[in-house]
Amino acid sequence: MELLVITLVQANPAREGDAMARIRLIADSVRNAPGLLNARFYRGKGPDISYFILTTWENSEWWQKTQERHDPRMLLLNSPPDIFLAPPDQWLMQYIWGYSRPLAQSVVVAAHLALVRPDQTARVQHFWLESLRQQAVEPILAFALLARTLEEEPADAARTPSQTLQAPELQRRPAGQRPMFLNLLSWPSETYQEDFYTNEHYRNMQGLLNSAGFVRILKLDPL
Fold first, then answer.
1. What is the DSSP letter of 11?
2. Is 92 helix (H, G, I), strand (E, B) or coil?
């Protein structure tokens, strides 16, 4: 199963140039990793300078083999001091849904990160999928994906030896921890983005998310 790895880090505004140079070096390293299917790098808009890295791997085995040399989080941690304000956040996820319109260029990009209550996970996933499928009918989106953090590990008695070994390395969600959803969206223009956000399906979905957890929206520029 493909593995999606999301890495988010905030740069020191006083060293913005150094941060950009470091991100470009990391991009060159990660894109040469064996087992990598896709890598996308973004710079966040707004007063807080952040970088958002999305990498997709063939499976968890390839990720484990290449972590030491090509893990974006480790590469960021090994950066010179003071370039980034805090250690990067990272989530390991599985794809739920994806959409791509090859003829449409991704100009405007946003990432929606939603932390939801465990008892609302199934409901949020169902309604989010339905909302995206409804809006994908119209030619508004250029690209979109929905993913969620890996499921919590089964009980020790139910684990196979390989599962026991892989659990810490894959950073699966511990029992009781809130699941995280990622919805990455892009549009050909700001007009299409506005049409998407004013759609009834999106407004209903945002209402559910606000009642079921916490949502953070990042406006992004592709690098």
1. B
2. strand
- Could you tell me the two tokens for 156? 């020790």
Q: What is the DSSP letter of 139?
A: T
**Token pair recorded at residue 222:** 């592709």
Q: How far is CA 215 from CA 37, 207, 221, in A?
A: 28, 11, 20
142 phi, psi to nearest 5 deg: -95, -40
**CB atoms < 10 A from the CB of 66, how many?**
18
pLDDT tens across 176-191, in order? 578 999 999 999 999 9
Determine whether 198 is exposed, middle or buried from the number of CB atoms within 10 Å of its CB (0-12, 13-18, 19+). exposed
Instruction: Please list, in sequence order, all residues whose beta carbon lies within 8 angstroms of the beta carbon of residue 151, skipping any fewer than 6 positions away.
Output: 172, 173
Distance CA 162, CA 141 (A): 40
Torsion angle of the four alpha carbons 25, 29, 31, 35, in this order, in degrees rounded to the nearest 10: -160
Give the tens place of pLDDT for each residue, 44-53: 998 889 999 9
At 31-78, the pLDDT tens digits run 999 999 999 999 999 888 999 999 999 999 999 999 989 999 999 999
- 173 or 108: which leads in pLDDT: 108
